[in-house]
Amino acid sequence: MRIHLATDHAGFDLKETVKTYLQDHGYDILDHGAHEFNKLDDYPDYIFPAAYAVSEEPESFGIIFGGSGQGEAMTANRVKGVRAAVYYNGPEEIVKLSRSHNNANILSIGSRFLDEKKAIHIIELWLNGAFEGGRHDSRIRKLDR
User: Fold this and answer.
1) Which pLDDT belongs to residue 143?
2) Contact between 98 and 105 (Cβ < 8 Å)
3) DSSP result, 19-86
4) Cα dihedral angle (118, 15, 51, 70), rounded to 10 degrees?
5) Is 4 tagged catalytic?
6) Is residue 99 within a helix (H) or strand (E), and if so which, with residue range?
7) Are 116 and 17 spatial neighbours (Cβ–Cβ below 8 Å)?
8) How far is residue 62's CA from residue 51's CA, in Å, rounded to a whole number?
């Protein structure tokens, strides 16, 4: 499974940790940056390329990082075919529902609100989730028009 990663400075360290974990567990990773820490960088410069890649490669997923994850998700959701969900250490059910009901193909992580261990746990939950389809399918089709 291919996973597209992207972040700005606020999520840089967590992205690097998650990237290593995912590579060590056999995932095909494409890192869209940032490739070095720069406190003056802008998240759209990295999030847009990752979101476009996910939209062009429907079998892939994306994991994006930021301080809160909110701006990053807003950026990604401007790309047709992307359904980015935000997680910043709330109930785990949010992550499960983002896959089962919303068929999220990008997970936006609020790096300032969870540690590496929790982030990896949440990412695994999300990656192992499945879309239920059924009544949710028509809603997703409406989003993707």
Assistant:
1) 83
2) no
3) HHHHHHTT-EEEE-S--S--TT--THHHHHHHHHHHHHSTT-EEEEEESSSHHHHHHHTTSTT--EEE
4) 60
5) no
6) helix 92-100
7) yes
8) 7
Residue % of the chain over a pLDDT of 70: 100
pTM confidence score: 0.96
- Count of residues making up the chain: 145
Whole-Å CA distances, 125 to 37, 45, 87, 104, 130 = 28, 28, 12, 13, 10
Select which of 9, 16, 32, 72 is catalytic.
72
Which member of 92, 101, 121, 124 is catalytic? 101
- Architecture of the domain made up of 2-144: 3-Layer(aba) Sandwich (3.40)
Task: Check if 101 is active-site.
Answer: yes
Q: Rounded to an integer, what distance in angstroms lies between the CA atom of residue 105 and that of residue 116?
A: 21
**Max intra-chain CA distance, the chain:** 44
Residue-wise pLDDT tens digits, 70-79: 999 999 999 9
